[in-house]
Design brief:
The chain has helices spanning 53-61, 88-92, 110-121, 126-139, 156-168, 186-203, 214-217, 238-243, 248-255, 265-286; strands at residues 2-17, 22-38, 42-46, 68-73, 76-77, 93-96, 174-178, 206-211, 223-228, 231-237, 297-298, 304-305. The chain is α/β, with parallel strands linked by helices and 314 residues long. It has one domain (2-305): P-loop containing nucleotide triphosphate hydrolases (Rossmann fold, 3-Layer(aba) Sandwich). The chain is globular, with a radius of gyration of 21 Å. The mean pLDDT is 90. It binds adenosine-5'-triphosphate and magnesium ion.
């Protein structure tokens, strides 16, 4: 049973121009995506830069205005109530931002940043609050004296961990993690991913894990959605996506996963060239004449693909 449903979510930004500064067109940053979240599961949202991943995340937590579509949380339509002060949606759905530097107020000390959701949503005494902040810092592997410092006194990786501490402060149900490890070096990446998983087991959290790299999410996600120009081109279980990819764009992302084994490097390069050729030859089956992605259709109970039914568009 899902606790949250996103239906046909759209975020369009108007482009203004001309003498009267009227709306001449729109940026279709998110253009009709649907998904649902179940407790304790991890969802991947993958696609190239600019395809609309962060906008989707921000629209879900309520930092972007939704142009169309709806968000239902625990059976209630919350589309227009997401940012209401003190609402349970606000407490239960948190985000770890792609850019940890600009998502933290530079003039606030770490203790105030991490305790912000605690002050907003609970009634702890200063003592209890202090204990909770210490606990959170311990969870993300930071020393207690970090509390009295300012965000700029930390490295990118440390700030990302503080972002995680803030996100989990009030035991949320869903965390939208926007490229949480992309800015970190490989050894720290594994560390951060590990404690994200530990916290998940402890709290029964769900994640929407945003990444541009199918390699990173491979071992984490139960379900994955592949996004291209504001739309989903394919959606399915990890198994559907990695062992039975259907959309030509998914093939392309899969062939682009970096490879560290020299033994198979040549084969991988040939595979990439083959996929590129296929991409050129079969575009008409996967994109309409304006280059837009077709509506997504079910292939099996779990697997959805945006392509013409077989036989059409040949
Ligand atoms: N405030 C805005 N006004 C106009 N266009 C915007 C705005 N914010 C984002 N966009 C556009 O919406 C599209 C999607 O942006 P978004 O930040 O969601 O991409 P992304 O998938 O997160 O990319 P990246 O992997 O680089 O973070 C982009 O084409 C971007 O230029
Ligand atoms: Mg982004």
């Amino acid at each position: 049973m899902s606790f949250m449903e996103i239906t046909n979510l759209c975020v369009h930004y108007p482009i203004r121009g001309g003498f009267f500064n009227t709306v001449v067109d729109n940026v279709y940053a998110v253009d009709g995506v649907s998904m649902s979240f179940e407790k304790g599961k991890t969802y991947g949202l993958v696609g190239e830069s600019g395809c609309g991943k962060s906008t989707t995340g921000k629209a879900i937590i309520g930092l972007e205005k939704v142009t169309a579509g709806s968000i239902t949380y625990e059976g209630k339509d919350v589309t227009n109530e997401r940012r209401k002060r003190g609402s349970s949606y606000n407490r239960d759905v948190q985000m770890i931002f792609q850019d940890s530097h600009s998502s933290m107020n530079p003039r606030k000390r770490v203790i105030d940043i991490i305790a912000e959701p605690i002050r907003n949503f609970t009634t702890m005494t200063p003592d209890e609050e202090n204990r909770r902040v210490n606990e959170l810092l311990a969870i993300v592997g930071m020393p207690e004296d970090a509390k009295y410092k300012y965000p700029h006194q930390f490295s990118g990786g440390q700030r990302q961990r503080l972002g995680i501490a803030r996100a989990v402060a009030c035991k949320p149900k869903l965390i939208i993690a926007d490229e949480p490890v992309s800015a970190l070096d490989l050894s720290v990446q594994a560390q951060v991913l590990n404690f994200m998983q530990d916290i998940q087991d402890e709290y029964g959290l769900s994640y929407l894990f945003i990444s541009h790299d199918l390699g990173v999410v491979k071992h984490m996600c139960d379900d994955i959605a592949i996004m291209y120009r504001g739309r989903f081109v394919e959606r399915g279980t990890s198994k559907d996506i990695y062992t039975n990819p259907q959309h030509i764009y998914t093939h392309r992302l899969l062939s682009a996963i970096p490879n560290i084994e020299p033994a198979t490097r040549k084969e991988r390069r040939e595979e990439r060239l083959r996929v590129e050729q296929l991409y050129r030859e079969q575009q008409h089956k996967f994109y309409d004449k304006d280059g837009k992605v077709y509506p997504i259709r079910p292939l099996t109970e779990t697997h959805y693909v945006a392509m013409l039914p077989t036989g059409e568009g040949e």
